[in-house]
Structures are given as structure tokens and as C-alpha cells.
Write a structure and sequence with these properties.
Distance between the termini: 48 Å
Strand order of the largest sheet: 7-6-8-5-9-11
Largest sheet: 6 strands, mixed
Bound molecules: ligand 6CS
Order of helices and strands: EHEHEHHEEEHEHEHHEEHHHEHH
Number of helices: 13
Number of strands: 11
Structural class: alpha/beta
Length: 317
């Protein structure tokens, strides 16, 4: 008789947020198709993003959802998602890319594996939107603004290139830092700006089109390798099921949440940069790409090449 286990799974978000929806789809699929149970831990229950990663590497947790925004120190190549204007802006194309890309589905699992992690899925949560104390439309208007970034050095390079002063902070400190004007802005997808109430303390929303909030779900590799073939298959199927669920859930979520924000606040402004305005930021992307290659060496250069080839293949379909 197969043993019924309880698997512990932590993610970085709150109830009903994208990572939570993914985790629950994974949990339900496992529980419907086996005797195993999955216990989901949300943001704050076990610490910050760095803490849940450490607990997973130590085998205290079996599964973790950590965004590449926090994985830069462990896996420098994961910072590829912070090269601005690399990803297309169209949601369907982005989802196809995550579904089909060799860089995502073959090269990244290898890199995570070197850190004792079985990468099960990478998926997009939404387009990155800047919020600030003023509606910024040019690099000059970013001058002297401290913009919070997730804690990876390449994202700091991006905001320096954009003309701002990057300020890396873990998630738990962002709302307070905006409220006390220690920082003057940050970036996140709309659903998170709504869920975390960021618009209350950083009300000018700017659509720059420079990137996507991407995340990654994985298992402790020793744990995963010790599973029966049947359980490995179960976990892979549950992960695929959760991805398909998210691929349905995320498109349109930003629009819905933006309506909610606008209903709640009459202080909020929405600025969508024109093609010309974007161009001024886009022109600063190559220097960030160069820094990425400097930080990651040959391994990063090869990944970048594959990433671009995969994007090209999707976009020409
Ligand atoms: O900005 C952050 O740190 C957080 N943003 C999202 C969309 N998810 C978790 C992450 O910690």
C-alpha cells in the first residue's frame, strides 16, 4: 500500500493571489489523485522569500514558489527576466513562450538542479507596472527617485539605467517604506498593487511595457528524486494542471484589478507610455543586457541566446 504523505509548500503571496491560486490548483490535483495531502503556507507564515527558499534547500519544506527577483544571488542566470524590453508585451505570446521555450523548460531546470532544486514550472503573473509619487514619463523624471526593486543586482542595473536610484528591499518592507517616503516608487503587476494596497501609498501607475513578473515553482531535489515513479508523475501532472489553470486565470486579471483600484481611489492616475516615450527607456536596455552577460559569463550568454531564439520562434508563429 502506498504511503500517504503530507507535503509542505510555501509561496510568497496572500490568499487569492496568483501564486496562491497556483498552489491550490496543485494541492487539489494531488489530493484528488492520491492519498497525499499538501499544506500551503502563504507570505509571512514562514518568513520572507529568502527564508522559504532556505527551508526548502534544507528539506524542511518539500515545495516552494520563489520568484527569480529573489533568486539572483543563488542562480545569477535567473536575472535574465530583468533585462528590460526583452519580453513581448502581448499576454498570449508570453504564455506560449513559457509553454514552449527550451530556455525555460530545459536550460533553467539544469541551473536550478545545480542548487539542489527540481524546477517544476516557471510562469508569468502579470505585466510590470511602475508606481511612483509622480507620473513618470521620461528617464529625467526618475532623477533622485528611490525606486524599490526586488533583491537582485540586475534589477538595480535596470533602474539605474532608467535614471532612478534603485533600492533593493524584501517584500515585507515595501508598504511602510512608501508610506514614510523612504522610497518614492516600486514596480509590480496590477493584481499585486491592488492586493497589497500599494496604490494607497504610491498612486501614480505607469505602464512602461518593460517586463513581466515571472515566478518559479520547484521542489527540494533530494525529496523529489526519492519519490516513486508514480508520485513523480503525479507531481508533474499536478504542476501542469496548475499551469493551465493560471494560463486561464492571469489574462484579464490586471484589467479587472485596475477597475477595482479606480473604484476605490480617486487619487490614482494611470499613464500608458506612448511608443516614443517607451523608446527613451528601451534605448537603455542594451547596457543592462551587457551587465547580465558580465555577471553570468558563458553560461548566461548561452542562456540569453537560447531565450532570444525561443522568443523569435514564438513571435514568428
Ligand atoms: O514585490 C514583491 O516582492 C512581490 N511581488 C509579487 C507579485 N509577488 C511576490 C513578491 O514578493
Amino acid at each position: 500500500v502506498a504511503q500517504a504523505d503530507n507535503w509542505r509548500y510555501a509561496h510568497e503571496e496572500y490568499e487569492g493571489d496568483v501564486q496562491d491560486v497556483f498552489a491550490y490548483a496543485f494541492k487539489e490535483h494531488n489530493e484528488e489523485n492520491s492519498d497525499h495531502t499538501v499544506q500551503v503556507y502563504r507570505f509571512g507564515e514562514l518568513g520572507e522569500s529568502d527564508d522559504i527558499m532556505e527551508q526548502t534547500q534544507n528539506g524542511i519544506l518539500q515545495f516552494v514558489n520563489q520568484s527569480p527577483g529573489f533568486t539572483g544571488a543563488l542562480i545569477p542566470e535567473a536575472q535574465i527576466f530583468f533585462i528590460p524590453y526583452l519580453m513581448p508585451t502581448d499576454m498570449d505570446t508570453v504564455i506560449e513562450f513559457f509553454r514552449e521555450s527550451k530556455a525555460i523548460n530545459e536550460d533553467f531546470p539544469q541551473l536550478y538542479s545545480e542548487q539542489g532544486l527540481e524546477l517544476l514550472k516557471m510562469y508569468p503573473e502579470g505585466e510590470m507596472v511602475v508606481t511612483a509619487d509622480e507620473p513618470v514619463t521620461t528617464p529625467a523624471e526618475f532623477d533622485n527617485k528611490k525606486i524599490r526593486v526586488m533583491t537582485n543586482p540586475l534589477l538595480s542595473e535596470t533602474y539605474s539605467a532608467f535614471g532612478a536610484t534603485p533600492t533593493p528591499l524584501p517584500w515585507g518592507e515595501v508598504y511602510g517604506a512608501l508610506q514614510t517616503n523612504m522610497i518614492q516608487g516600486q514596480e509590480n503587476p496590477i493584481f499585486w498593487i491592488e492586493s497589497g494596497g500599494l496604490y494607497e501609498v504610491s498612486p501614480n501607475l505607469v505602464f512602461t511595457g518593460h517586463g513581466w513578473f515571472t515566478t518559479a515553482m520547484m521542489a527540494n531535489q533530494e525529496f523529489f528524486n526519492g519519490l516513486s515513479e508514480e508520485d513523480k508523475e503525479l507531481v508533474r501532472n499536478a504542476t501542469d494542471h496548475a499551469f493551465e489553470h493560471i494560463a486561464d486565470y492571469v489574462p484579464g486579471l490586471g484589467e479587472k484589478m485596475l477597475d477595482k483600484i479606480l473604484e476605490d481611489s480617486d487619487e490614482v492616475t494611470v499613464t500608458r507610455l506612448t511608443k516614443e516615450q517607451r523608446q527613451a527607456f528601451r534605448e537603455r536596455a542594451p547596457q543592462v543586457e551587457e551587465r547580465f552577460v558580465e555577471m553570468t559569463g558563458e553560461s548566461g550568454a548561452k542562456l540569453l541566446e537560447q531565450f532570444k531564439a525561443d522568443l523569435q520562434a514564438i513571435e514568428s508563429e
